[in-house]
Each structure stands twice: as structure tokens, then as C-alpha cells.
Design a protein that fits this description.
The complex is a heterodimer of chains A (about 110) and B (about 120). Chain A has about 110 residues and is mostly beta strands. In chain A, about 0% of the residues lie in helices and about 45% in strands. Chain A is built from no helices and 9 strands. Chain B contains no helices and 11 strands. In chain B, strands 2, 4, 5, 6, 9, 10 and 11 form a 7-stranded mixed β-sheet that branches. Chain B has a 4-stranded antiparallel β-sheet with strand order 1-3-8-7, with no helix packed on it. In chain B, a hairpin with an 8-residue loop joins strand 5 and strand 6. The radius of gyration of chain B is 14 Å and the shape is globular. The termini of chain B are far apart. The model of chain B has no long low-confidence stretch (mean pLDDT about 95). The chains are: A mainly beta (about 110), B mainly beta (about 120). At the A-B interface, strand 7 and strand 8 of A face strand 5 and strand 10 of B.
Amino acid sequence: QSVLTQPPSASGTPGQRVTISCSGSTSNIGDMYVNWYQQLPGMAPKLLIYRNNQRPSGIPDRFSGSKSGTSASLAISGLRSEDEADYHCASWDASLSGWVFGGGTKLTVL
Amino acid sequence: EVQLVESGGGLVKPGGSLRLSCAASGFTFINAWMSWVRQAPGKGLEWVGRIKGKIDGGTIDYAAPVKGRLTISRDDSINTVFLQISSLRTEDTGLYYCVLVDCTGGVCYPGNFWGQGTLITVSS
């Protein structure tokens, strides 16, 4: 059972906008930054969003992150077939003194 | 170019132990924070622990579920970080990733450089 809660799956059609949620608590998301990682099939995770809404160099602005209270969201606009992947949220947990992840959301592009 | 190459995984019986290695290159290793993250088959990511760089005292933190069975260490002379796991259980089965921690701006997190992972299978 993951500390952060994500829906197990999400889907959309090409060009559509999809959002993936990540729910936590006051000891993690509520008081700490949230990161998002994209994991393509058979590959290692890749940093997609850091500090709630910052994109590393090379990440297109189709990807955006937001946070409100103890929840965070990843939005992908202009959905493309190559966006089909698992998406993981993560945050530092002050009570556990460690990084915690969500269970991951499998995004399918229909 | 940053490279992280894990090795040491394999098939091991319950109760056994294993030591994983992660050879790093392409950055100044001695002061880098390094982390281990694992992923059970078909499951999400799980942070296992981290070791800080020399300038920050080399402090080590472990995730509560694995504390006591895992030992993270580093050898700065060969730019390598290690993960020793003892009393292995079937639930330790998974892909173990070595990750370079990004501490830009004073906030540290598993960054954009991950190894390819090394697989541990715990089975009798």
C-alpha cells in the first residue's frame, strides 16, 4: 500500500488533455514539494516535474504540475501516443523521514 | 555524460544476502547524494534509502520497512555506491535502481539520472 494515492489507470485520445491525481497528507504533499516521473515500458523512470510545477530541460510544456493542499495533479495536454507510460508522483514525508511514491498510474492513449 | 551502472543482482534463496553495486561516472561523485529505489514486478516505485556526500557527512537514511536489513555504503575512491541486503524475503524481489539525488537550490530529490536497474529474485 503506497503512502501517496494515485488512480491505477487513466486514458485519453490523441490531442486530448488528461490529468492524473496524487493524494497525500500534511506530512508529505501538504508541506513538501511534489515530483512526477514518467516511466516508459521497460525503461527506468525519468523526471518529468519537480518542485510541484517545474519542468527539467527538455520536457515539453504539454506537461504541467500543480498542487493544492494535500493533493497534486499532473496534466498532459495535446496527448500523443508516445505519452503512453506509467506516471509516478513522489514527495518527501516528514513523519517517515523518507521519500514516498504513489502506486503509479498507467496512461493508455486510445 | 552522467552514467550509473548497477550490478550484483540475481537469484537468491529466502534468508540469503546480496550486495548490489552502482558505478557512477560523469559527475563529481564524492559530494553527491545517492539513493536506491526499488520496483517490485508490476508495482510502483519504493524508496529504499540514501547516502549523502562527504561534504554533508555521508549520513545514511533508510526507509522504515527495510531498516535493519539494508546497508548503504560508498567508496569514493572508485565512485561506487553499494546496497547490501540481508535476510532476503520474497517481497524483496524486484528491480533495484541507483539514482543520483538532485540538490539544486537546497531541496533534494531523486533526480533525472537513474541506472538501468539490477534485478533481484528471491525464491526457493
